[in-house]
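Escalation from tier 1.

The customer reports that the assembly of four entities below gives different structure tokens on two consecutive runs. Tier 1 could not reproduce it. I'm attaching the input and our single run for tier 2 to review.
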Amino acid sequence: MVAQPELDFAVSTAQQVYRWLREEILRGNLIPGARLSESEISGRIGVSRQPVREAFIRLAADGLAEIRPQRGTYISRISVSAVMCARFIREAVESDLSRKVAARADAEMVRRFEAEIAAQRRALSREDAVEFVNLDDRFHRLLAVEAGEDAVWSVLEGLKSQMNRLRHITVKAFDAHKLIDQHEAIVDALRAGDADAAEAAMRRHLCEVLHDLPEIQKRAPDLFCP
Amino acid sequence: MVAQPELDFAVSTAQQVYRWLREEILRGNLIPGARLSESEISGRIGVSRQPVREAFIRLAADGLAEIRPQRGTYISRISVSAVMCARFIREAVESDLSRKVAARADAEMVRRFEAEIAAQRRALSREDAVEFVNLDDRFHRLLAVEAGEDAVWSVLEGLKSQMNRLRHITVKAFDAHKLIDQHEAIVDALRAGDADAAEAAMRRHLCEVLHDLPEIQKRAPDLFCP
DNA sequence: GCCTCCCGACTGGTATGGAAGTATGCATTC
DNA sequence: GAATGCATACTTCCATACCAGTCGGGAGGC
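Tier 1 run:
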């Protein structure tokens, strides 16, 4: 981690440090287990320890960092059980969202989903993995929006971010082709207005990490809690 | 708010102030829209402003408080859309949990659920509303535990807390008899090992707030965002 | 060699003062 | 009387200083 953020004095320092660190963690530039030092960071970006400290507190609330009193602050390692938990919740929620969207799908809405999939294929052909992860977020977000449950996404986003950390870190490990095909299967069901099929396709899609996880865990064991 | 917490010097001050304030908010002793002051609170419990400030930050991360820069910190008002969102997620997740529990229910497990319901009836007969809300938490928590998804509860807890604020504030507004009967219907389905029935009973149970919410909103409009 | 103890260099936690922004009441002006 | 300007008393935010707990290394004793 050599980069440092450019400070904008319009918003509070603590807020900016928080956003910057969060971004660095989610992108995998700060790897699980790495140590964060209040004084080191504050010294580097030229502010006092206090705002940095407050950023740490917010990261800890997000589950992205772990503050060990009088000992140090560390990027939290990925907990397998937390990932499984996030997956379970996503499967439950997004399958319900799929049903709801399938029930109200129209031609215009289907076009919006198709546009997203087209964008995913373009990103894949450019082998732009970071962009693909962003587009994957957008696809799942669109599902919440079209279900008329925008607010649900903000909760899912927090859960999904834990899973995305895995992807950014081991960016080549997942098969984007397969994921896009699964997205397509979901959209097919939406187009047909078939709620059962949409739910089934979504559940199948969200089982995917169950396949990837052991592989990733074997390849990079120290990213995970013991 | 006249009470004040007793400080235990084993855990950090900030942590204790956070827990204390959180409890006060969830119990409805601090009502939505009320103002929080760093200096007022710190002066009252005899600590410096810093730990109080850090507690505020954590409350804001939970969505329980709102920090308006240079203006003040306020107990956040309840957002109807946030409650609806929490309800949606709970319905999706807990109906899946119900299915899973129904599939693996045995006599011993059913006894544990029955014991919870008995406790609920006792609390009701004592008209102990606070205890009843606690027991309601425990019932839904037990469901997650028996499904083997303990970690899911911690996410649900955050969502449920927003809904519980409503109950503590307008504590007489809900019909505990009806809720217990619905709990019983869920346990009946678990006893029968009938996943479909368990899911249906849970969904019906979690639709309950849809009935209560407009009534509560009409009765206490300034607890809600405009 | 091995263990124990102690010292120093860290860590996060707390206290406090001051800077900057905001709301409010009052005097002044039109 | 209505509107404007201003002093003042707040607020959060940041910087600084100090405290206490933790960890690691080296000296000394066995």
